[in-house]
Amino acid sequence: MKKAVICCTCLLLLTGCWDRTELKKLGIVMGIAVDKDPESGEFIVSTQMLRPEALSTQSPSTEKPVEKVVTTGKTIFEAIRKSNLEFDRKGFYAHNKVILIGEDLAKEGLLPVLDFFQRGKEIRGYVFVCIAKNAQAREILESDTGGIEPIPALRLKDMIEDTKFQLKATKINLLNFYKESIGSGIEPVVGVLEFDKDKFSKKHVKLSGGAVFNKDKLIGYLNERQTIGYRWCKSEVESGAVSIPSPVNDDRYESVEVKKSDTTIKPTVKGNDISFTINVEGEGIITEQEVMTSLEDNTRKLEHMKKTEEKMNKQIEKYIKLAIEKSQKEFHSDIFGFGRALNKEEPKVWNQVKNDWNERFSEVPYTVNVHFKINSTGLMRGPFQAKN
């Protein structure tokens, strides 16, 4: 009898689905774009919601796979809640992949904009944050060009993730943006999405360069070469193709694929003087060679590899210096984490200089040491050549 009473009591207590929401009643959000209305000053929030039936493989549909919902409000939360007035699904944000912010809004500061997303329970910290350059964020999010993936937000997410295979663009997620913007000794750099001006037929979206921030405010952009240097300095190079002039003929090029890299920033304090040493270690292989020069013996291969290493060292150093010069002279923003490295090695010194660090950073001297190793020419006997 006692067992029966206990079982009945447990059944009454374990009714855990009383507050469930049916899946068919949810609007699964894949991407969000936030702009600002210059006239009213209100936020314009564009939400991209999934249409599951349009993606069905059993009954293919001609409908678009997503539905666009655009609302306005004095706050992000107000604008999002307004979507219920014109859309028949409640937004579900746990699967959101990207948050796009308009350029003008980013210049005013991102922390007030991102507060709702960071404070809410549904938005994940790993969602990507990007800046829409020279365009409205909603235009970038709505663009249907640039890939095979039918859902625009997923296509943008895949492009951002693929920065690990190249060096000319950067990325950051919501959590890391918060860490770097409210922390000390480092400023954030955010991924940039823009329309490719070279694509005349359609508005083709591309990922390029990086958006530089001072705390949470956008202050400028790194171009692609400066972004390459930034990523080497930040030790954010996983892979990538690097083109360098051939050691045999400067009018021809070789391609080197980066296989491994690591960068350390070491501060040196002498009295009131602070300097930094940037040590870059890298490895890669030669994957392409335009010059038709035979490398038939090991001695010639080793000589060629050594010359290629020297050129790689110079090019990496050049790009790092371009990025640091831009950051020091124009932005006055420590995007590389020099201050963070100083805080780690010399916390007492850091406490003395942290209040005006970005100004001190603008004048701080540094040295760049690059040691890149070519492990293979990727060739057995040199390039293929036509016989006479």
UniProtKB/TrEMBL annotation:
Residue span, Spore germination protein N-terminal domain: 19-194
Origin superkingdom: Bacteria
Start and end residues of each Spore germination GerAC-like C-terminal domain: 208-378
Keyword field: Coiled coil, Germination, Lipoprotein, Membrane, Palmitate, Signal
Database matches in InterPro entries: GerAC_N (IPR057336), Spore_GerAC-like (IPR008844), Spore_GerAC-like_C (IPR046953), Spore_GerAC_C_sf (IPR038501)
Topological category with respect to the lipid bilayer: Lipid-anchor
Leader sequence residues: none
Gene Ontology CC, one term: membrane
Subcellular location(s) of the protein: Membrane
Coiled coil: 295-325
Gene Ontology terms: biological process: spore germination
Family indicated by similarity: Belongs to the GerABKC lipoprotein family.
Protein name: Spore germination protein KC
Lineage: Bacteria, Bacillati, Bacillota, Bacilli, Bacillales
